[in-house]
Design brief:
about 120 residues; mainly alpha; two-stranded parallel ribbon; globular
């Protein structure tokens, strides 16, 4: 029920978010990612841009364990258009960062009751 139009833009992210805006070993922000991010976003604010990223990834990638990079690899996801959750995470993080939205990849299990 979130209305993307009501999500306020952030003029300048606090310095603590800087690491979630830059490229990493597998979370690549190269010309391919910048172009794709630019094609997908920039029209309706961060929430709409990220929704467009998710829609594109769902429409253009195939979930497939046999082609998984096991490293959240943007490059693997863009080249193969296949992979498992880590490849989806890497690609979405790269595209979010290319759009200027801090993103990070987190793995683990949350074993606490949701009411805490």
């Amino acid at each position: 029920g979130l209305d993307p139009a009501k999500v306020e833009p952030v003029a300048k992210w606090p310095a603590g978010f800087d690491r979630y805006l830059r490229a990493e070993r597998y979370v690549v922000i190269d010309d391919r990612v910048k172009k794709l991010g630019g094609d997908l976003g920039g029209t309706g604010g961060a929430a709409a841009d990220l929704a467009a990223v998710m829609d594109w990834v769902q429409a253009n990638m195939t979930y497939d364990h046999s082609f998984a990079s096991l490293a959240a690899s943007t490059d693997s996801a863009l080249v193969k258009k296949r992979g498992h959750c880590s490849d989806y995470h890497g690609l979405c993080s790269s595209l979010g960062r290319a759009l200027g939205v801090p993103t990070r990849i987190v793995y683990g299990l949350h074993l606490f009751p949701k009411s805490i």
